Amino acid sequence: MNRLGELCVFGWNGVFLQVDLSRNKAVAESYDASLALNFFGGRGFAAKILWDRLKPGTDPLSPENKLVFAAGPLTGIGLPNSGKFVVAAKSPLTGGYGDGNIGSAAAVQMRRAGYDAVIIEGKAETPVILHVKDKTAEFIDAKDFWGLSTFETEDQLKSIYGHSAGIVSIGPAGENRVKFATVISQEGRSGGRPGMGAVMGSKNLKAVVFEGSESLPIAQPKEMKELSAAGYREVLTLPLYTFWKRQGTMSTIEWSQENSVLPTFNFREAVFDKADKIGGFAMEKIKVSNRGCPQCNMTCGNVVRDSDRKEAELDYENVAMLGANIGLGNLRQAAALNRIADELGLDTISLGNVLGFTIEASQKQLISEKLDWGKFAEAKELIKDIAYRRGLGATLAEGVQAAAAKIGNDAGDWAMHVKGLEVSAYNCHAAPGMALAYGTSAIGAHHKDAWLISWEVHTDRGSYGEEKINKIIEMQHIRGGVFESLTVCRFPSISLGLELQWYTRFLRATTGLDFTLNALAEMSERIWNLIRAFWIREYGSKWSQEMDVPPARWFKEPLTEGALKGAKLDLTRYNIMLRQYYQKRGWDERGIPKKSTLKRLGLEDVAKQLNKHVNLAE
Hints:
Shape: globular
Strand order of the largest sheet: 2-1-6-3-4-5
CATH architecture of the largest domain: 4-Layer Sandwich
Distance between the termini: 43 Å
Number of domains: 3
CATH topology of the largest domain: Aldehyde Ferredoxin Oxidoreductase,  A, domain 1
CATH class of the largest domain: Alpha Beta
């Protein structure tokens, strides 16, 4: 039995580990069953922890910020794609809530060590590694690791702790507090786009090593074993499985090119004349293996030999952003840029934005550096300058929003971000629904929460109507709430079509409790509103509807190439759509949750706190 009491005996460990790096202290703490039932885990736990424990206005790079690793009730259970956890903190890039999920043995090992979340605050005097092993936590001198790449760090730590240990680390980018530095595991698993690596670096925390030997609390172990085996078999029978194993997300390059959504030349265009050189079929010709997260049988990491003859792991987002978006039509070279970013601990999506923005600034003679599209050597050196904050790299390390503000002129119009987080790899000149999904994502311009683009392209693409708004909210609940809080990978369901009812069955066998899809949607809505409240508490009177509007480029500059030449978004219609979204969410015209909405979701205390920062509508 765990520590959640009679109401909720199984599924959750019922324990968080609270770590204070300033005092080299780690204390296990039990939490109440209501937290598990209302927020489930992963993103839900992270958002609640940050809301409850972080003082408003905290500097994201100060010792007071909390770095949270959080898992859900399905994490580590032997079911399809359950080796994930969330890393979260107040974001140094956006100033709001920031998180990302990582598929890593670290997630499984943290749960087996007996913890559903590890909460890290303070700052070590000198670089340290945190070693969590079952009921012990050890602080290890990391001076010999500081400055190493993430690959080197993990390799050395595995030589000490063994290959079964779960390890997350930062590279030089995190050490130097690059605002879009991420946390890396297993040579290519990356999480925390809004600067979670920078938060980790600000605490002088080089790596966390997890080792656990406890069994996870499962209500119906026999049924769970049978159900898990059936789930794995079901994934293998899904129609798209064979092609997925060949290309994973890389087939999206061809799809995006065909449908004029491929980010090209800093999102100025939506088709790339060398798309066939960097797509899924080109990748298959140089592919050497697949990689995946723990407990996955649909491995999405395509491993190739890059231009340096080293192994690099590819997916759609990093190839689109480090290929087409910077005008680079050589897949092996794009792979090398991706590997270097992973070694340094940089988010590849934000990086591709920053590089594209900088090349455009050079072309417009707004900076003195001479850069051009498709130049591999130039991009490679600039990436290193960003990670080490050298010269122009110091400015770019702050992200495109800050860089545009420093450059001035009209640079803000083509700095591709929402709320400070750079746009992921879908051009929305002709996709108003996806633009709204970016505008209202929980962390800034990210596709993870609502990948509407495929549905939109195949329905009424040009519409700004109600059906799209409903679909966005549905996707945000499923993708951004359910999967992020259970916490398991969304790919079996959203990429291959595994029915959602599998997850209610998994939950029943794991927890012994019945959860309907409607109950999970309500849980997701609660988390979504809490995250929204966190943003508004941080921004206060500065918050406005403008925070949810995507980059001006999509509204002002029509496409000049491809089948959709001349397309651009309509700002008036977008704003009408946004206000309708607010109404359906139960938010006011500023995009702030109403008191009645928060009360309905059991967030009365959140309403009281938030009302101190902004006047809430009834």
